[in-house]
Design brief:
The complex is a heterodimer.
Chain A: E1 5-14, E2 17-27, E3 32-37, H1 43-50, E4 56-63, E5 66-67, H2 73-79, E6 81-84, H3 96-106, H4 114-120, H5 122-126, H6 137-149, E7 155-159, H7 167-174, H8 176-182, E8 186-191, H9 194-200, E9 203-208, E10 211-216, H10 223-231
Parallel strand pairs in A: 3-8, 3-9, 6-7, 7-8
Antiparallel strand pairs in A: 1-2, 1-4, 4-5, 9-10
Helix pairs in contact in A: 3-6
Chain B: H1 2-32, H2 40-58, H3 62-83, H4 93-115, E1 131-134, E2 137-140, H5 141-163, H6 165-175, H7 177-182, H8 187-212, H9 220-234, H10 239-259, H11 263-278
Antiparallel strand pairs in B: 1-2
Helix pairs in contact in B: 1-5, 1-8, 1-9, 1-10, 2-4, 2-8, 2-9, 3-8, 5-6, 6-8, 9-10, 9-11, 10-11
The chains are: A alpha/beta, B mainly alpha.
Magnesium ion binds next to α1 of chain A.
Chain lengths: 235, 287
């Protein structure tokens, strides 16, 4: 069976600087894969490269066998990859509803609609006519996640959705991930917070200076090994 | 005395409608898309000359010609953004200023070369002379219609921008082009649509202006200034504010001209400066 996403020897360059080196990764349908790594390890660059939004990209990335290199971001989103960008990246003067609708318009047809998103995040229904910038950080992150989910992705990419949020809010956000997987959606979760993202993942890879330094199943990896490959050198 | 003042106000309000039409495209590009188009006035003058030539050849009313040209105006705006202005998006304020400044010079000199420096005016036909007696004052039918057209166009654009999905996309891209690109809302596809709409407002303004007042190849920049003042007075991002801004400028000009002819434009600028001091964000800024 071919995996949903298969990445081979992916490199990302910003001019002469190489942020991602020869990364291989596969993600199966309905699988949750966690990417961990220190600040600057290349995690965001990798996710953005999948939707053709990071510098110059070489190597191959395929979604269900379809080569992504030939496609624009728009087409990739329409094919079924949705990114929840680092820093949320909402449209601050647009209402919650308008922000969400843009995700829906750009995505695939599917059964995740406004009702489902409002069920996951009831506060968004209440505040649907508020402007995005009037919301708290946690609520904004819910909009960013909701916007991506409304695109009915086959593969959801989450870039540090817990950043700067209270643990209670993070729990609320992470509670959605298994429910999303139930629908057959694969999820890649990028976090600096190791325990949080290992807890939700089937598999993990650790990035160190743009390369995969370790990969495996959360249950099989002990803390010390992970720390070594997270920070590099003799930690 | 009261009649004179009333008359000055009414005529000022009506000419404010013309200024608002003139400023509407600028209000969109400056207030919503957040870039300054220095060639805004010159592009309208260019449309005026196109109307001049076509009405000359066809012998039709300039309004009919303008109506037929609306899709062309949209296309020109679209092309301009897609192939020229889009290159400056996300590169700060200077490149767009330089590019549109260059465009302004090219248009002015091109028109001068093609048409010479003479002052022109288009004939709107009998409607130009028609007047209504409203109580103690005479109101020109044509200025009244232009004002109503301005109101209708603003209402339509406001609905387009704030009530439709494509309007929301335009505002999204204006909010954050990089964020839009990240989620596949390609800014390079959205901005040209917005500029196409700006092109339509420019053609409408050109047809109304060139029947109402004289124009020549060099008049664009001074018109740009008035439009700029109307937009800033009204508040960036508020199309209705631009109408109010235009009206304030029209009324100020009329009162100024009572003092002395040279005070007409001076009064306009003074009112603008005073308003700027007390309400720098404009009267109806969308926060
Ligand atoms: N647009 C860019 N231009 C140049 N360098 C960049 C750019 N984005 C990221 N980088 C660099 O690439 C490296 C990886 O960054 P990033 O992918 O954001 O890492 P992470 O998400 O793991 O913190 C960093 O050294 C960063 O400075
Ligand atoms: Mg990052």
């Amino acid at each position: 069976m071919t995996p949903l996403l298969s990445v081979e020897k992916l490199n990302v360059f910003y001019d002469a600087f190489q942020a991602v080196h020869d990364v291989d990764l596969t993600v199966g349908e309905g699988e949750i894969v966690s990417i961990i790594g220190a600040n600057g390890a290349g995690k965001s660059s990798f996710l953005k490269a999948l939707v053709r939004q990071a510098g110059r990209v070489t190597g191959s990335a395929r979604l269900d066998g379809c080569d992504l290199a030939a496609l624009s971001t728009r087409e990739i989103v329409a094919k079924g990859i949705a990114l929840v960008p680092e820093g949320r990246k909402l449209f601050p003067t647009l209402t919650i509803f308008e922000n969400l609708r843009i995700g829906q318009e750009l995505g695939r047809k599917g059964d995740i609609g406004f009702e489902q998103v409002y069920e996951w995040f009831p506060v968004l229904r209440e505040r649907r006519d508020s402007r995005a910038r009037e919301l708290s950080g946690g609520q904004q992150q819910m909009v960013a996640l909701g916007r991506a989910l409304l695109a009915n992705p086959r593969l959801l990419l989450c870039d540090e959705i817990s950043l700067g949020l209270a643990p209670r809010v993070v729990n609320e956000l992470y509670a959605i991930i298994p429910q999303v997987r139930e629908r057959g959606v694969a999820v890649v979760v990028v976090e600096q917070d190791i325990s949080r993202s290992l807890a939700v993942a089937d598999r993990f890879v650790c990035f160190l200076e743009g390369e995969v330094s370790l990969s495996g199943r959360p249950a099989d990896a002990d803390r010390d090994t992970i720390m070594q490959h997270y920070f590099g050198g003799a930690h | 005395m009261v009649e004179t003042i009333l008359n000055l106000i009414v005529q000022g309000v009506l000419i404010g409608g013309l200024y608002a039409l003139f400023a509407l495209g600028l209000s969109l590009s400056l207030g919503v898309m957040r870039f300054v188009n220095i060639a805004h006035g010159d592009m309208i003058v260019l449309f005026s000359f196109v109307l001049l030539s076509l009405t000359g050849v066809l012998g039709w009313s300039p309004f009919l010609v303008a109506l037929i040209l609306l899709p062309v105006a949209f296309g020109l705006g679209w092309l301009l953004q897609r192939f020229l202005l889009q290159r400056t998006v996300g590169k700060g304020i200077l490149p767009i200023l330089l590019v549109t400044f260059g465009l302004s010079i090219i248009i002015q000199n091109g028109l001068l070369e093609a048409y010479g420096p003479n002052t022109r005016k288009l004939s709107g036909g009998a409607i130009e002379l028609a007047a209504l007696r409203l109580g103690p004052i005479d109101v020109g039918v044509y200025p009244l219609l232009v004002f109503l057209l301005a109101v209708a166009l603003i209402a339509g654009l406001d609905a387009f921008l704030y009530r439709t999905a494509i309007g929301a996309r335009i505002r999204a891209v204006a909010d954050d082009p990089a964020a839009a690109d990240l989620i596949g809302l390609t800014s390079a596809r959205i901005y040209p649509v917005a500029m196409g709409v700006v092109g339509i407002t420019m053609l409408v303004a050109a047809s109304c202006m060139s029947v109402w007042t004289n124009f020549d190849p060099s008049i664009g920049p001074s018109r740009l200034l008035a439009a700029f003042e109307a937009v800033v007075l009204g508040g960036l991002g508020s199309l209705w504010g631009t109408l109010i801004g235009g009206v304030i400028i029209g009324v100020a000009q009329n009162f100024g001209s009572q003092i002395d002819a040279s005070w007409q434009i001076l009064a306009q600028h003074l009112v603008f400066l005073v308003a700027l001091v007390f309400r720098p964000q404009g009267l109806f800024a969308r926060s």
